[in-house]
Amino acid sequence: MPPATRAKVIGNLPIEPTSFVGRRPELAEAKRLLSVARLVTLTGIGGVGKTRLALRVAEDSRRAFEDGVWLVEFGELQDEALVPDTVATALGLREHPAHPPLVLLTEYLSTRTLLLVLDNCEHLIDAVAKLTDSLLRSCPDLRILATSREPLVIGGEAVLRVPALTVPDASPTPQALAGSEAVTLFVERATAALPGFALTEENLEPVAQICRQLDGLPLPIELAAVRLRAMTAEQILDRLTDRYRLLTTGNRGAPTRLQSLQMSIDWSHELCTETEQVLWRRLSVFAGSFGLDAAEGVCAGGMVDPRDLLDVLASLVDKSILIREEAGAAVRYRMLETLREYGREKLHEAHEFDDLLRRNRDWYEGLVLGARSEWIGPRQPDLMVRIAREQPNLREAMQFSATEPGEADHALRIAIALFPFWLSRGLLSEGRYWLDRALGLPGEVPTAHRIKALCADCLLTSNQGDIAAGTAQAEEALQLADDLGDPGTRALVMHAAGYLAAFSGDLPRAVACLEEALEVFRTQGNPIRQISTLLGLAVAYGLLDDAARAIEYQEQALAISEATGEFVYRAYAVCALGLALWKTDPQRADGLLEKGLRLSREADDMLATAMCVEAKAWTAIVTDRARRAALLFGAARTMWQRVGSPGAVVPKLESYHEECELRTRRALGEQAFESAFRSGERWTAQETIAFALGEDLGEENPEPAGAATALTPRELQVAELVAQGLTNKAIAAKLVIAQRTAQGHVEHVLAKLGFNSRTQIAAWVVERQSG
Description:
This protein is mainly alpha-helical and 771 residues long.
């Protein structure tokens, strides 16, 4: 059956790592504000719990957003120019040649009912505010929940200041303690750190005083609670009291909450050993999460013995300075933003900041150079995952190289090495941003490096349809290559010039340039350049109606790819071969497209996936499976949007799409086609691939026994409107009923049919109408 019959959760909210404590009034108010305002900003000082509150509000609000709840984390981002790219990446969108990230986001979000959670906006406040304002103006069913130390200050913003947790009064009763959110948090975290801990008559008062002295701030309370592994509550209180007196000496009144936070972190720092303190400050150089190998490569030395580093890391995890996370088979660590800021202050005080940034840059440069050397090989999927995880740290490394005098060549080397990653992930604008910055830096760099960077930039710009910029880059690269007199370097320029010519429509020149490049690359035995050139030639010959030559080059590319064990280019080669055969041999084409889908899924390449799904819709209709074709057309539409493309943009491929869609509409009838199309449109990428491959799914979507008779006429009417893609608000307007009433009808339909999502309703309606 179509994947719509399986329950699903749309979005990327993380699972809460610990229990959520208190906040009932704030939860209720935040949800109320979100129901009446399209932008709600949770404000407050660091450590007050804005992020946890936002995530709980988002989780509780899932049902209101058919297209999911999506978290965008800005804490690791330092460059405001990349704010739109970061949002697009969180949504799983890939860039399209003619669409900058803002346009891509607007087109995708304009037709969706969706909640964005923008976390840690304060250091990028202007860029986030500008993007938020633009999206809200263009996307009527978009809502945004932001966390920031200050409001975004744009029209329609509702601001909720997040207070500290409630604390007990002096000399509290046991009943009063039970009602204190701060005490509840302390006890829960204490129990996690020290199983068997409980409030007693002896520790009741110290715990209450700890929570009061820490002003009910969640972060310092959690840091204090973990100390129970080594201290009693009374000892913790004594240490805090000494610091409290220092803060109040010579000042009027009690310390501010910000001072309480500083006091708590200072105290946590003092309780660390000297080696732990050194490693804490050094680890703050990482912009995002990091692995053990990075910590050893960047932070070991001096007081931090490489042999002891893992033990020191574990100790910092035990003290809640670091958070341990499992990412597949790998273990990674990260630091809360407030603790990272503190560590960086200590790094400056120790005069180690610039040195650590340079060591960090050198280590990550080595990482990407090594990944580039292994790119065409069986480790390619693992390398893509690793590079994706390291993006915040790689940006930090490039930022350092771009701002530090005399480091231009390092910036170029990192950007050149990252080029295949940017291209395969569709991060075209980000790639251009860093390549343009690196190419514009003052200082001498090797000519060969500049040529490689110009060629990479040319390929990205021509992919984006910026032919003028690509032409300028190709011309400069060709002049430098001719001056250098190296055939291999000239071939690299011809490869870029060939793709540029293809994108600009000059197919004969594209063939001439790529054939010249291929001859040299074959002599060199460079697999990545051979595969890329062969695929470019295959496409060019195909568009010139030389099918035999196109298939010949596709098969050559496939042979090299299979011999090396790589995935990305193999997916494109297999998919392209399927595209070439879909009319003449649809059964063989179908098998090739399924192979391409498996490869593109392995490589996480959404562009290749979209191409395969589109082509499978064509093979479905030419083999008389009209409903399947309509579902796949809808699914392909969403996938094209995710990669930022309107679809098959090459004229001949566009004509194939139009021909097959028209044939499908005629076979099903307009209403049945639209219902199936909208059903497929709602599928996730994973569901689409599973359906296209037939993995554990049948071809049919059986109707629950007695389902139609179980629904009232009004509920049947509502189900049909759901199948047309209408929101509860739109259904209410069409039927002239209250939105709450429409929501009730939808919930009744879900319950009676035994379904969990609106997509399942849509699939059921399609099946009922076509049956």
